[in-house]
Amino acid sequence: MNAVKTPIPARQKGFNRAEIVDANFTEYVRTWQGGARAKPRDDAPVLPRSACTVRDFRELFVSQLISRHLDLMARVLRVQNKVFYTIGSSGHEGNAMVARLTRHTDPAFLHYRSGAFMAERFRKLPGMDPVMDSALSFAASAEDPASGGRHKVWGSRPLWVLPQTSTIASHLPKALGTAIAIEQAQRIGHELPVPKDSIVVCSFGDASSNHATAQTAFNAAGWTAYQRLPAPVLFVCEDNGIGISVKTPSGWIANNFADRKDLDYFFADGLDLAEGYAQVQRAVAHCRTTRRPTFLHLRTTRLTGHAGTDFEIEWRSFEELMALEATDPLLRSAAIALESGVYTPDALLDEYEAIRKRCFDAAEIADQRPKLETLAEVMQPLAPYTPLAVRAEAVRVPDASARAKVFDGADKLPEKLPARHLALQINAALHDLLAKYPESLVFGEDVAQKGGVYTVTKGLYKAFKGARVFNTLLDETTILGLAQGYANMGMLPIPEIQYLAYFHNACDQIRGEAASLQFFSNDQYRNPLLVRIASLGYQKGFGGHFHNDNSIAALRDVPGLVVGCPSRGDDAATMLRTLAALCKVDGRVCAFLEPIALYMTKDLYAHGDGQWQFDYPAPDEAMELGEGRVYHDKAKDLVIFTFGNGVPMALRAARTLEKRHKWKVRVVDLRWLVPLNDRFIVEQAKSAKRILVLDEGRKSAGVGEGIITAIVEGGLGATPLERVVGADTYTPLAGAALLVLPGEADVVAAAGRLA
Ligand SMILES: Cc1ncc(C[n+]2csc(CCOP(=O)(O)OP(=O)(O)O)c2C)c(N)n1
Ligand SMILES: [Mg+2]
Fold first, then answer.
1. Does 241 contact ligand 1 (Cβ within 6 A)?
2. CB 198 less than 6 A from any atom of ligand 1
3. What is the model's pLDDT at position 37?
């Protein structure tokens, strides 16, 4: 970096470093020693040999100043409760270059220090005001165009900036996924919402680059490029040398990234516009033309602490802080501006003050704008549901010739075949979905040629080819990141997670990321996806805990998520149609839990009875969200609420109970686990003389808790009730598994206690 040419006046030790950074700038410009310059031409290099023209520089500098003054304003107005966020961009303003050198249609997933990037990107469309928009966001106003007052995020629908969560590095897999999706869309003939040669911009901090979620994205990007598959993502590591208070070892980022074979490394000085511009330009051009994953190491510094609450003077020396403040990129920009004659000192000070005023004025206006006032307003974008449109979409029949082709002839359509078991009916339903939605993709570990470890996806690869049905690398975080990427580009991703235990391994990609996008973007962005997860226990003699995980607690409270769990093949097919429709119509994130132990189950009561095989539902049938299935609906002596493996178990137990107690037993298969249909549960419980809740999950935080709560809150707490539920333990191998999980005998015994 060019050293700042005019020495910074030695500042007094001060407590408020934001004030000092502010005063440094003013004093630096006021005491500038250079002589007066002629005003340069707009298209001339701003400094000799710089790739940055005077026009580029002038606009970039203003973007930097806007970002800086938004930071300073936030620090002042936070204490007056007019602003609710103080993580700033000071020291990172060089990222404006990345915005200038990319397009507003290059989807961007941004680090929280992206004030200058945003101010610069705002220039790309007419009539937009970065100051007012940011102010509304800082003020958590309901009129905040990014999130509607739900979070201070950098986001914009027209500018293709998808809002990010505060979880560092969690956005890298989906940024990579979006880049891959841009390319893959073209292979499957899907029309993209952005130009074909778009790249994806993804920025993050130096400390964040160490996170497992970041590393998995770098690895997956390299894995992709290694196979000569395109992945046009520009990873921008904004290296300020520190993460909160932990210093990144000097040279670590270059050491760790400069020599990766399939992640092309570029360095740019983000502290110096005249120097850094060409460097950023090279990285962007490389990414756009080669379509290779590109790593731009952008040098930055961090001024005024991690956030407003971080009083660095309590843990760092003044000397160190002053040395950092001397590297302020705005001082360097001021030097360039004055040296080149773009500004005179007076004109620059006027500009500086004018932008300060603009930011404060906007903040005062924003403070007066409406806030979110009701719970309904807060939750409004969370879980959109338009039942009529969903139903219409779910029963919309795929093209007959497409079906005939996929199923090898009109006479082999699955609804014309005899009743079959769950795995085959899910398989047929997936064939149907892929025929119905040309933009849908099935992917995961082993799903393609092999057809999955349980052959549930068998034949899809052959029918729909590798661009739509493909194996991923072995990483669940990447699988779910890819899914979000495809969704961002308007496709319908149907990823598979091989076992429920391994969903937990990547849970944040659904819990923190995918499910939250509609909320934090005020429903301006949607990433509908339908994740299939082979789930639950009871595989006879196989697998132990990790292949028999019975806990869905981690899915139960994810806001906005839909979770369905069929117990039989026909329900699986109609449920899948509805889930896909929920994706298409309402943009929902959906999980489909497939009970592994029921995949091949054919019999219900006795060996060879074939009673757990069902006809494939006609393609114009679908299941309503929340709708359960009731067996023996008139029966009242005992009502068993259950789902999944519990359904055939309850039906078997019911036979014994009918004989033993002369009871009529109703079995209610909830089918939909999130959201639980409380009204339906209460409706079913109302007429019950006794209630039994059969939950194959764990005692703590299982579905059973929700069912009982619904019953009690529905005023039916006085009905005698028993719960049969799994133990709070991991599942052991072999026969001992049955000690942990509910069994038929447990159901019979619990019912006996109700007698
Ligand atoms: C997964 C996760 N862990 C911890 C945090 C808390 N946290 C927020 S920012 C941060 C440091 C990030 O440093 P860096 O990536 O260098 O970015 P910088 O703030 O320096 O720009 C930490 C630990 C978080 N937000 N997310
Ligand atoms: Mg950092």
1. no
2. no
3. 79
Q: How far is the CA of 244 from the centre of ligand 1 (A)?
A: 7
Q: Which residue has the higher pLDDT, 269 or 1?
A: 269
How far is ligand 1, taken at its centre, from the CA of residue 360, in Å? 28
Q: Is the CB of 497 under 6 A from ligand 1?
A: no
Average pLDDT, the chain: 96
Which residue minimizes the CA distance to atom 20 of ligand 1? 243
96-123 residue pLDDT tens: 999 999 999 999 999 999 999 999 999 9
The conformation of residue 543, written as its DSSP 8-state character, comes to -
Whether 346 has a pLDDT exceeding 90, the answer reads yes
The CB of 243 under 6 Å from ligand 1? The reply is yes
Specify the ligand 1 atom closest to the Cα of 111: 21
Output b/e per residue, 310-325; b: 16+ Cβ within 10 A: bebbeeeeeeebbebb
pLDDT in tens, 431-484: 999 999 999 999 999 999 999 999 999 999 999 999 999 999 999 999 999 999
**pLDDT confidence of 308, banded at 50, 70, 90?**
confident
Catalytically active residues, by annotation: 547
Chain CA centroid to CA 454, Å:
28
User: Is pLDDT above 70 for 7?
Assistant: no
Spell out the residues 6+ positions from residue 184 whose beta carbon is closer than 8 angstroms to its own: 441, 467, 486, 491
* Ligand 1 mean position, distance from CA 206 (Å): 9
**Tell me, what's the pLDDT at 39?**
87
Query: Which residues surround the ion ligand 2 when the cut-off is CB under 5 Å?
Result: 205-207, 240, 242-243
Phi/psi for 201 (5° steps) reads -100, 130
CA-nearest residue for atom 19, ligand 1, is 243
CA dist., res. 417 & res. 614, Å (int): 10
Strand order in the sheet with 589-595: 469-471, 440-444, 492-497, 529-535, 589-595, 562-564, 672-674
Pick the closest to residue 513 from 222, 137, 201, 162 (CA basis).
Answer: 162
CB of residue 242 inside a 6 A radius of ligand 1 = yes
Q: Which helix (H) or strand (E) holds 118?
A: helix 115-121
Within a 13 Å sphere around the CA of 107, how many CA atoms are in the beta-carbon half?
A: 31
Q: Is the CB of 113 under 6 A from ligand 1?
A: yes
Side-chain half-sphere exposure of 45, counting CA atoms within 13 A? 9
Confidence of residue 13 (pLDDT cuts 50, 70, 90): low
Answer for the pair 275, 96: CB distance below 8 angstroms, yes or no. Answer: no
| β partners of residue 45 | 53
Q: Whose CA is nearest to atom 12 of ligand 1?
A: 243
73 and 360 in contact (C-beta within 8 Å)? yes
**What is the separation of C-alpha 324 from the centre of its chain, rounded to a whole number of angstroms?**
35
